[in-house]
Amino acid sequence: MNNFICPVCGQALEDNGKTLFCINKHSFDKAKSGYINLLLSSSQGNHGDSAEMIKARRNFLEADYYLPLAKLLSTVVAHHTPQNCVIVDAGCGEGYYTEKITNHLVEQGKTPEVFGVDVSKHAADFAAKKHKNINFAVASVADMPFADDFADAVISVFAPFAADEFLRILKPEGVVIRAFPLERHLFSLKKLLYENPYENEVDDIPPECFEKLEMREHKSEITVVGKEMISALFSMTPYFHRTSLEDKEKLTEIENLKTEICFGIDIYKRKVAENELKKR
Ligand SMILES: C[S@@+](CC[C@H](N)C(=O)[O-])C[C@H]1O[C@@H](n2cnc3c(N)ncnc32)[C@H](O)[C@@H]1O
Ligand SMILES: [Zn+2]
C-alpha cells in the first residue's frame, strides 16, 4: 500500500513499483532499499544524523538495552489504536521502535499500516533494508507527505516534536505518543564524565492543541558491556557534541557501565475546539 502524497502539489502518489508519481507528473524514484525520498530538492542536503551516528545507534539498539522502552511503547500504542490502524513514526531513525511496535500490533491480531519518516536518508535506507513491511520516506516531521486526518497514532521517540503537523495528519480521535528521557536518564554516565553533572531538563509539552491523556514511565538499570557499546551509547546522547575531548577520554578507561535508564511516555489527544464542540 502507498498512502504518501506528493510533496509538491499534495495529490495522491501512485506506485508503479519503481517510481511514485502524482496526477501532475511529479515523480519520485524509490531507492534500491525501498524507501522514497520526498524531500524537495530545495531542501536536500546533509540532514539529520550522519551515517556514523546511525551505525552507532543501530549497534546499541540492536543489543536490546532499550528493549523495555520498546515493549512499553508497543503496549501503549496497541492500547490506543483501533483494529485497522495507520501509524506514523515521525523521526523514526533506523526503525528499531517502528518495527517492535509493528510486530506487537500484529501479534495482538491488529492490521496496522505503518509509516516511518526521517530526514536522514542514511536512516531511511537502513530502515527500509531491514523492515520490509513498513513504508519509509525521507521527509521532515515539520512537513510530512501525508493527507490531513490520515493517522490513528503519530509516534515521536526522542525526535523533534512538530505539534501543528502532527495535529494536521492526525484523525480526529487519533493520539500522539511521545517518548522522552526523564531527569535521571543515564545519570551515572554523566557522573563519569563531568565533575558537576546536571539532570536532564524535561520539556513541558503539550502545546495548546493537545490534551494529555496519560503518562507512563520506565525506570531501571542496565549494564552496558564493552568499550564499543559504551561509546555507541554516548554518541547517541545530545551531550556527546558538547563534551570536551578530555572528558570524552574518561569513557575509554572503563569496560562496563552500570547506569539508570529512565523514560517517559506521554499520550496526547487532540483538544476539541469550542466551535467543534458546538457542531456535535
Ligand atoms: C535521537 S534520533 C531518534 C531516532 C528513533 N526515533 C529512535 O529512537 O531510534 C532523532 C532522529 O530524528 C531525525 N530528525 C531530526 N530532525 C528531523 C526532522 N526535522 N524531520 C525528521 N526527522 C528528523 C534524525 O535524523 C534522527 O534519526
Ligand atoms: Zn504532484
Structural Rg: 20 Å
The unique ligands bound to this protein are: S-adenosylmethionine, zinc ion
Low-confidence stretches: none
Order of the strands making up the biggest sheet: 4-7-6-5-8-9-11-10
- The CATH class of the largest domain turns out to be Alpha Beta
Class of secondary structure makeup: alpha/beta
Please give a structural write-up:
The chain is of the alpha/beta class. 30% of the residues lie in helices and 28% in strands. It has helices at 51-62, 67-79, 96-107, 121-130, 163-169, 187-193, 227-236, 245-250, 274-279, and strands spanning 14-15, 19-21, 27-29, 36-37, 84-90, 111-118, 135-138, 151-157, 170-181, 210-225, 256-270. The protein starts with 13 loop residues before the first strand and ends with a helix. Zinc ion (ZN) binds next to loops.
Task: Write a short abstract of this structure.
With 280 residues, the protein is α/β, with parallel strands linked by helices. It has helices spanning 51-62, 67-79, 96-107, 121-130, 163-169, 187-193, 227-236, 245-250, 274-279, and strands at residues 14-15, 19-21, 27-29, 36-37, 84-90, 111-118, 135-138, 151-157, 170-181, 210-225, 256-270. Residues 6, 8-9, 11, 22, 24, 26 line the site of zinc ion.
